[in-house]
Structure formats: C-alpha cells, structure tokens
Amino acid sequence: MDALLLSRLQFAAATMFHFIFVPLTLGLVIMVAIMETKYVTSGDETYKRMAKFWGKLFLINFALGVVTGITLEFQFGTNWSRYSAYVGDIFGSLLAIEATVAFFLESTFIAVWVFGWDKLSPKLHAACIWIVAIAANTSALWILLANGFMQNPVGYVLRNGRAELADFFDVITNPFGWNQFLHVIPGALTLAGFFIMGISAWHLLRRSNVDFFTKSFRMGMWAALIFSVLTAAQGHLHGNEVARVQPVKLAAMESHWETQANAPMYLLQIPNFGGEGNLVEALPVPGLLSFLAYNDPSAVVMGLNDVPAQDRPPVALTFLAFRAMVGLGTLFVGLAALAWLFRNRLTQVPWLLKALVYAIPLPYLAHQFGWIVAEVGRQPWIVYGLMRTSEGVSPIAASQVAVSLVALTLMYLLLGAVDIFLLFKYARKGPA
Amino acid sequence: MILETIWFLLWGLLWAIYFMLDGFDLGMGTLLPFIAKNETERRTIYNAAGPFWDGNEVWLITAGGVTFAAFPAAYAVLFSGMYAALFLLLFALILRGVSFEFRSKVDSEAWRKVWDACHFVGSFAPALLLGVAFANIFRGIPIDAQGVNQEGLLQLLNPYGLLGGVVFVVLFVQHGAIWLAIKSQGALHDRAQATAIKTWPIAVIGTVLFLAYTAVDTVLFNNYLKTPLLLAIPVGTVAALVAIRPALGAGKMVRAWVASATFIVGVTMFGVVGLFPALLPSSLNPGWSMTIFNSASSPLTLKIMLGVALVMVPIVIAYQFWVYRTFSHKITDEHLDYEEAY
User: Fold this and answer.
1) In this structure, are residues A320 and A255 in contact, taking their beta carbons and an 8 Å threshold?
2) Cα(B317)–Cα(B83) distance, rounded to whole angstroms?
3) Which of A103, A111, A201, B252 is an S-S bond match for A356, by CB 3.0 to 4.6 Å?
4) pLDDT, tens digit, for every residue of B236-262?
5) Taking Cα atoms as reference points, which of B250, B231, B229, B228 lies closest to residue B239?
6) What is the pLDDT of residues B85-126, one digit of tens each?
7) Which of B4, B301, B334 to mutate to test binding with chain A, by most A CBs within 10 Å of its CB?
8) What ipTM score was computed for the predicted complex, to two decimals?
C-alpha cells in the first residue's frame, strides 16, 4: 500500500474515532448546563446531583474527545503537508482562531468547573459550565467552517501557487460550513438526548433513583424530540445545498446515473458494487428525487454517467451511508415521539424503556454515517474542485505511515475500550 | 516584512509561554515515580496540576495552529519532516491527558500503577522530544531544494540535539519541583524543595554547555553579534537562572518559580531570536531554508489573525491568571477527599 492510501486510512480512523466522543461532548454539556441552571434557579438539590452525575459521564467522554482532537491538527502537517502548504493561508488560520477563541476557554473553564464546586458561588459555577458549553460549540463552528472550505471553497484567490485568502467574510459566512454546523449541533443534542434517555431507562427498569431518573429522562426526551425533528428538517435544506454545490456527491448519495428531468426515486434500489449503474431498481416514485433535491418535481438532476469515472466518489459507500443516516434519523423521530407519548407512565412500558437502552449506540452510528457521506462523498477532492486528495499527501515513506497507523489504531482501541468501560461503570453506578 | 516579523516573535512567544506553563506539569509528571513515597503524595502531584494542565496544553495547540496559519509552508516541512518524532510526541500527550482522567476512576492498585506509568512516559517524553526538536531546528535540518525534509528519528539524536533534550528535561524538572513545593506541604514539600536545589547546579552546567555548543554547532549567535543590544536576552536569561538559587535557599518558592519561568521563556526566546529570519534553517544550503518570508501566509491572513491575537491573547492570559489565583492554595487532605479530585 502506498503513503496516500495509508494516510487516508489513518485520517479516517482518527476522525471517526474523534467523532465518537465529540457529539456527546457538544450535546451533553448543554444538557448539564441546563441542569445546573435549574439547580441555581430552583434550589432543588436533585438538579445539582443531576449536573454532577451527567457531568461525570461528560468528563470521561470529554477526555478522549480532547486528546483525539490533537491528533487531527498534527495529521494535517504530518500526513497532508502539501494540502497544508496549499490552503494553510485559509484553513490554518481557521484552526488557529478556533484554538484562540474557543479551545482555550473550553479547556480552562472545564477545569474550573470540575475543581470549583466549593470555591465559587453557585451562580459563577453555573456560568463556568455555560462558558464550556458555548466554547465547545463555537469550537465546532470554526472546525466546520474549516471543513466547509474543503467542501465548498469560497473567499480565496489562486496566487503564488496556492489558495490565498481574498475575503475573510466569505470564508466565515460560507453557507456550507454553517449548514453543516446547523446539522451537527442538533444531531449532537439528539445524541445527548438518547444517551440520557437510554441510561435513565436502564435505571427506571431497575426502579433505582426513580425520581432522579424520571427527571433526567424527561430532559433527554425533550432534547431528543425537538432536535431529532430539527436535524431532519435542516438535513433536507442541507441536501438542497449539496445538490446545488456538489452535484456529484448528491448523485452518489442517490446512486443516480442518468441525467434527467423529473428524476424518480426508487423505493428499492441496490447499487452495483464496484461497477457502474444499479443492481436493482424497483418501485420508482416519479419526480421524487428532483423534488427532494430542488423542491421541484420537474428539475433536472445530474447523473454519474456525465462525470468521468476518476472524478466520482465511491458510490456504494456514499449511497449506503446516506440511506443508513436518513433511516436512523427517521427512527429517532419515531422513538422520541413514543417516549413523549408515554412520558407520564414510563415504568408501565418496560418494552419502550428496553428499546431506548438498546437505542443508545444508534445516534453514534448516525453521526458516523453522516461524516462518511460528507467526506467520502467529497472524494476524489481534498478541496472540492480545487485540489485532489492524491495531490495533498505528504512526500513521506509508506513504511512510516504504516507504523504510525498500526500504533495509532492499537492505542485508540485500547483507550476506547477503557473509556467505554468507565462510561458503563459510572452510568450503572448511578448518582451519588 | 513587518507583519512577518511580528508573527515570528508571536510564534516564539507562544512556544515560550507553552514551555513556561506546561513545563511544570511535565516536570512534575517526570518526577512522579521518584519523589512521591505514597498514594497521598502521588495524588497531591496529580492535583497540583489538576486545574491547570488542560489550559496549559492549549498553548501548544495554539503554537502549532499559529505555525500552520502564519507559516504554512514551514509547518508542512516541519511536521512531515519530523514525522516519527511528532507521532511519539502525540502519543505521549494522549497518554498523559487520559492518565489524569482515568487514574482514580477504578479503585485498584494495579490500575493506578498503569496510569502512573503512562503519566510518567507522557510527561518525560514530551520534555525530551521538544528539546531534541528545538535543538535540531536551531542547528538546521536537511531541507532540500524542493522544501522536503526527510529526517529520521535517529538523525535527530545527534549530540547537540540530545543535549537540547536533556537540558529541557532538567529545566522542566526544576520548574515542576518548584511548583510542587508551592502546592504541597510537609515531607513532600521539603523533598520538592530539596530536589529543586539539587537540580539547580545541573541546570547551570547544562546551560553553559548548551550555550558553548550552540556557539560551535549553530549560527544562532550571529544575530547577537550583529546587534549586540540583543545580548540582553541571553544575559537576562542567565541572570534569571542565577536568581533561582537564592530564592530556593530562602524558601521563597513563588519567587523561585517566577525566576524559573523567566529562565525558560528566556532560553526559548534566545533560540528564536537567533534563528531570525529563518524558522527552519536548512543544514544543506542556507538558500533552501524556510524563512518567515518564503513560508508566510498572505498579508491579509496575517493581518486578520493579528487582530484576533491582539484581542484574544490578553483575554486568555487574564482568565488563566484568574484561574491560577483561584486555585493557588496548597493541596491538603481536604482537597484530596473532594469527590472530583484526581
């Protein structure tokens, strides 16, 4: 294997592993902040115990999110040095600004929050977790603006053999980056909602700390209900944008081959693995694809046959990941609605509680699938339409990358196992 | 021209602040297996770094991010060229970071031993690697005409590079011992103070050797000879080193820490100013060096980032200062009983 393929595998492993921890961090910190605010405003000690219990799970998760994030900054330089030199003017500055305006705040105040329960007034202490929540989500915004530049490069000019900044305002208002942000954050709150509901359901099934976990469950339920709907609705708008800006990605998401007006969507469709076209196409709904992509049933949707093979992303993977993400997203709306229906007699519906325990991993999967759609669907470009992934890789020996890939994978597997073990341990233990 | 120079100095300053702040965490982690005699003392060391280490480490992320943003071409050469060394640094930082969070989460002697070992490796290795890396930058790395550097780990371990690594470890250990003396009491405090006193002569010898070797093996002194006024930096740095000892002897730990911090900042800035205008001098041909001019971002990017830095860095310093003040107390049993303590 060559340095390019190994570097791609390494980056995929590092990003996907990082993104196991990030969505829970982004969502759960807001939930903990709300819990502590309720404690400060109502004086009800249960909310303080909630902030501490869910906060502990947050911290265990947060630790790995931070250390795996450093890997990504390093890898742009180590494995993608040509990319870094080419777009550093824009991409690098977004990362640097992220560190200065957000990551500092997050890392400094999380420690104040952990160690400051007895040192600060309750109000100031609650303010600390809000600072962390806002900083974490601001951090996500800057990172997604950086990714947005890779998806939809704007505000640049090609000069001196690289992409130089031409308009900073364009870069930080890149609609693609904002759309990703507005999709990821509600998605993160959905995940946090299901995380809280699932663990609460486990305890409710055992009748332990019923009052505590009923209150927790309700908060998780509301988050899951509101944000699963928002994620889905915004996902549709984001899809419209992908159709406009990245028509090849859209065609791959749908495994759509013939450019046509009034394009149908097939209720049963299986892409041809490794080849062109679809293995199975059945039950067409005329115009549905055109409508979903452009809100117009007669719009023309570009097909992959109009794109040279070397400019197409891996179609089957993009298609399946997209289907899985949308399917799971729909399931979340349904599950959250069921939880809402039975919210006043939770202990009488053990089947629902059990289902919610088993649903905990599903939003994680949905997030992973979402990133596969976004990143695999962008291939073969590292910066869409501007630089190919193969042109961005470092001039380094494949053996070096192979060793680091194996070492990184082993380390991540070990740390991931420890982290999940600790999350289980403390989730089961219940509040102090 | 001016923008690049400002960013070069800011770049150096970010690294200097990082070494000054994370230096004591890394030093304490390196001392952990040698200075702590029992579980209470080990936990005292973890909690002496507890509220600070995460915020300190972000200075490294920022220094890296600023290299990427302000001098992307140099970032590309440095990170791909020192591939193996940077991955070792990364693994070490990951191990250190999780050891804080994981260590006390399972009540088992064996479990804690594993994370103590990770904490030690994760503290000692970055100190050593950063020293080796910076010393190698000072003496020049083999950058070819295409701006490619293919330096393996073994080539970095030349005598000057190794000396740089050892000097960094010694400085951080001394810095960490002083911090531990500030934050602890009783036997651990006394041992930390004694350690700092014992480390001091080693730091002096290391510094003298390093300055002498620098004169022989690098061109760092050229800038100082050209502009003698700049000699104030190494002179001030040595003065700070000298000032550590009487403060330690008198038990004035905060003063000793400030002197040690000044010394670490001085050592870093001495190297950085000596490098100017190169970020990464080429050992093959000075013409192939990555300088601040041939590797800088566009003036627009530098200007916007300067605006961000001028607003944000003072704010960051202000709230981090507040955090240090809020948690300036000595670690006592009461703090270790605290359920959130490490």
Assistant:
1) no
2) 31
3) A201
4) 999 999 999 999 999 999 999 999 999
5) B231
6) 999 999 999 999 999 999 999 999 999 999 999 999 999 999
7) B301
8) 0.91
